């Protein structure tokens, strides 16, 4: 199947939503779906959907709809979900513990291998059988384990320092919860998370209704 390369960032940002909805359809034994039906479920326009899905293959057939399973498989490949990722969490406070406790990431192929903190009171505590270790061990841990993603959940002032230890040990992916723009080499991919962005979108849409 002929595929186009260079999927735009805007399409990439929409893919997780396609992934979520299409997997739900597979679970419900839906074999085919039209762009119009998908549009009603997912909230993107039918033409947006046709345009997006056209980026990575010829799945839709006029009057026939999309093959849901094939589309799911393709989206898995593009989202990198046919690979397994080893992750660690740095900072086992509120956010770090919440992420460690969220087992759905494992189901997607993100395997948590270690949790690190600086607070002596937290060291030795276990979350899902993983012991929280002293941050001083992280260097050795990274040398001896193939970690692909570090999840940074430390206070802003410690985030860059922590990132540098990770980068020195060849970790190429950072999921950064600290509210700071990390300085990283080009080959390191940083995905920043800001829950407040979503909250501010809500307040923007809500402001005239209350
Ligand atoms: P917290 O204070 O509960 O946890 C931070 C943890 O990091 C503590 O356990 C602390 O001992 C540990 N820590 C501090 N320095 C460290 C170091 N050098 N190495 C290893 N561990 C270290 O804080 P919380 O609420 O979990 O927030 C964590 C980070 O996430 C903060 O930067 C906060 O601003 C940010 N945050 C981000 C949100 C988002 O939407 N992205 C939402 C809420 C918080």
TrEMBL record:
Keyword NAD carried by entry: yes
Location of the protein in the cell: Cytoplasm
Domain named CoA-binding: residues: 80-181
SUPFAM superfamilies for the chain: NAD(P)-binding Rossmann-fold domains (SSF51735), Winged helix' DNA-binding domain (SSF46785)
Pfam families in UniProt: CoA_binding (PF02629), Put_DNA-bind_N (PF06971)
Gene3D superfamilies (alphabetical): NAD(P)-binding Rossmann-like Domain, Winged helix-like DNA-binding domain superfamily/Winged helix DNA-binding domain
Record's keyword terms, sorted: Cytoplasm, DNA-binding, NAD, Repressor, Transcription, Transcription regulation
Binding-site residues for NAD(+), renumbered to this chain: 91-96
Range of residues in the leader sequence: none
DNA-binding region, residues: 17-56
Function: Modulates transcription in response to changes in cellular NADH/NAD(+) redox state.
Subunit-structure text: Homodimer.
Family: Belongs to the transcriptional regulatory Rex family.
HAMAP family cross-referenced by the UniProt entry: Rex
Protein name as it appears in the record: Redox-sensing transcriptional repressor Rex
Organism, as annotated: Clostridium neuense
Gene of this entry: rex
């Amino acid at each position: 199947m002929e595929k186009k390369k260079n999927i735009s960032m805007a399409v990439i940002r929409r893919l997780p939503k396609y992934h979520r909805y299409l997997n739900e359809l597979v679970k419900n034994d839906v074999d085919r779906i039209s762009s119009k039906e998908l549009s009603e479920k997912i909230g993107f326009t039918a033409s947006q959907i046709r345009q997006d899905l056209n980026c990575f293959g010829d799945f839709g057939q006029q009057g026939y709809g999309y093959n849901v399973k094939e589309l799911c498989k393709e989206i898995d490949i593009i989202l990198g979900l046919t690979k397994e990722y080893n992750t660690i969490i740095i900072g086992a406070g509120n956010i770090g513990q919440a992420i460690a406790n969220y087992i759905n990431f494992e189901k997607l192929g993100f395997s948590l291998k270690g949790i690190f903190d600086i607070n002596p009171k937290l060291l030795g505590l276990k979350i899902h059988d993983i012991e929280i270790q002293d941050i001083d061990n992280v260097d050795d841990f990274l040398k001896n384990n193939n970690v692909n993603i570090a999840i940074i959940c430390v206070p802003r002032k410690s985030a860059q320092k922590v990132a540098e230890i990770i980068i020195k040990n060849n970790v190429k992916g950072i999921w950064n919860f600290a509210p700071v723009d990390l300085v990283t080499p080009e080959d390191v991919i940083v995905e920043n998370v800001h829950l407040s962005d979503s909250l501010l979108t809500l307040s923007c849409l809500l402001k005239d209704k209350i």
